[in-house]
Amino acid sequence: MRTDTTVRDVMHREFLGVSESDPLADAAELLVEEGTDCLIVLRGGESVGRLGCRDALGALLDVGVVATEGAGDGPKDEGGPTVGSVMGPPLPTVTPDDALAVVEERLVAEGVDRVVAVDDGQAVGVVTASDALAAGAPRTGDGARESIADEARVAESRRSDGPVMGIDGGADPTVGASSTDASGSATQGVCENCGALAPDLVTANGQAVCPDCRDV
Q1: Residue 196, φ and ψ in degrees, nearest 5
Q2: Which residues lie closer than 8 Å to 41 by C-beta, 6 or more apart?
Q3: For the residues of 94-137, what is the DSSP string, one character each?
Q4: Is 38 among the annotated ligand-binding positions?
Q5: Which of 7, 210, 4, 194 shows the shortest CA–CA distance to 106?
Q6: H helices, E strands: number in the chain
Q7: What is the DSSP letter of 66?
Q8: Which residues bind Zn(2+) per the record (predicted)?
């Protein structure tokens, strides 16, 4: 397998974006229609925020804008909330030439499931946690690859998991992989029970799980 894979090799060049001035109701419709849970908020080509489905739904419920069946036939409320009024902070960024190890570090450090690839200040793509793991991102801080046996085990866990939705509305493979250090102890990866990306997976009942799932 290649050891020089970069962000450019795996990023989604087509992704869903909205502007700060877009009506929140329209953005919520886009979330539903495309089957995704996050939109990138753009100012020109610059990533300035993110809109999650929970944030959008919560804001619409607060102002009573959630449409009932058939309500879409009438005129839209132009005075309703906008994307900019409820958006969250921008997602972490990487450059297209960064190694996938950089992506994983951002995902774990920021507690997010995707990053935005930025070139010359412009958003040019998105990489999800599933993208990084499926491409064989390194699991250690110095960028070293795990053994071939470990990679085979990771590939098997990928085949057994179901799909999750990516930022572009397509299905990304959920990866139930974990990594180990030189002593064989679990380090960081994706929990095989809940799917969360965690820095300290441990083995329990034959699975690599996060501390929360281990205590259940």
Answers
A1: -80, 145
A2: 17, 18, 19, 20, 47, 48, 49, 50, 51, 83, 84, 87, 90
A3: E-TTSBHHHHHHHHHHHT-SEEEEEETTEEEEEEEHHHHHHTT-
A4: no
A5: 7
A6: 8, 12
A7: P
A8: 191, 194, 210, 213
What is the C-alpha to C-alpha distance for residues 92 and 18, in angstroms, rounded to an integer? 17
Residue with tokens 């300035």: 48
Rounded CA separation 36/17 (Å): 12
**How many angstroms separate the most distant Cα atoms in the chain?**
64
- Which tens digit of pLDDT belongs to each residue from 149-190? 444 444 444 443 433 343 344 444 333 333 444 444 445 677
Ramachandran category for residue 205: left, alpha or beta (phi over 0 → left; psi -120 to 50 → alpha): left
Q: What is the pTM of this model?
A: 0.56
Q: How many residues does the chain have?
A: 216
Would you say 191 is a known binding-site residue? yes
Dihedral (Cα; 5, 6, 12, 18), 10-degree rounding: 160
